[in-house]
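Example 3.2
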Amino acid sequence: MITLLKVRNYKSLENVELPLGSLHVLVGPNNSGKSNLFDVFQFLRELAEIGGPAVHSRGGFSQIVWGGDVKRTISFELHMRIENGSAKEDNLTYYLEIGGGPQLFAIIKERLTVSNGPKGKKTLLTYPVANNNFAITDLKGNKVALSRSPDRLVFEQFQDEAHHGPLARFARELLSWSIYNFEPSAIRKPNTVKQDFHFQTTGENFSSVIHSIQSEHAEKFSEIESLLKRALPEVSHLFTALTKEGRTYVSWEEESMPLRVPVWAMSDGALRLLGQLAALFSPEPPALACYEEPENYVHPALLTVIADVIKCASDENQVLISTHSPYLLDFFSPENLIIVEKKSGRTQFGFVNNKKSLKEALRVLGLGEIWYSGQLGGMP
């Protein structure tokens, strides 16, 4: 779990230091920087997966550095607690600094350290060292210098926990981070049948993932089906089926209809709801999941189901959501809330001071209503 995030010069996050818990709800006006925070996690994961194209797909370095000033560098620092298979946890600190120009991008500095009690800190990864290589420390304490691509993080090659311990655990967490903003038009497409348990951002592999869960994790599939039936009582059964071309798609049966309803005939709200329920109850959930406006297309009466599932998921993994819905906010506590505002082009994050006056107000008003009144900030 990420316990502290520091960001310098990434998009509108010019100078941010943000402590994090297992569950947060971000509220703020459009263009305040909520999506930019989520993109920090997606950007870091993509740097590990594909390297430089993560920068190019965002328009180049000049489009992601604060104010377009390519003389500046961008830095990220993450403090994390990760379970290590025993009763203890690894306390990790990761630092990355990158730079570039209009058409250039390079990693300037990278460091991963672990601290486990009285033994002090141990550096697991350092870049650069001699000859522009990087160095890792294995479980035996041996330091090894290796070459690297100048525009790609190295973690994909160090996922063997038996040899790399906390370095491997960090790599697996980073590579699992997921941002979800499900689009009904993407979800409706039939998919190739393949083993896949990780939803893509807009849900374009939705049917493939549901098919995999149904085929290999029957208990999880039943949980998702039960939650769907709780939200939509008219649904009696959830299925995956095959087209004539052998592609898979999701369908369901309704109590009052003899025919199955295929995914392309489902409503936008039903698709968004099902996607979010399935992602939150995935058999291989991400260590960090970020959900963009989960209330979109969903009837306000069903937000209690979404909120319950989000809270349940945050018991095991870290969950961040953004919302513009006071109705959804009503289901959360003040300590979950992060107020996002932009001043002079800079995104600022704030927490609610749970004063006595707020506690008294919560006796008669919902948290969403208090926020919507403007008392807490984060309003246009």
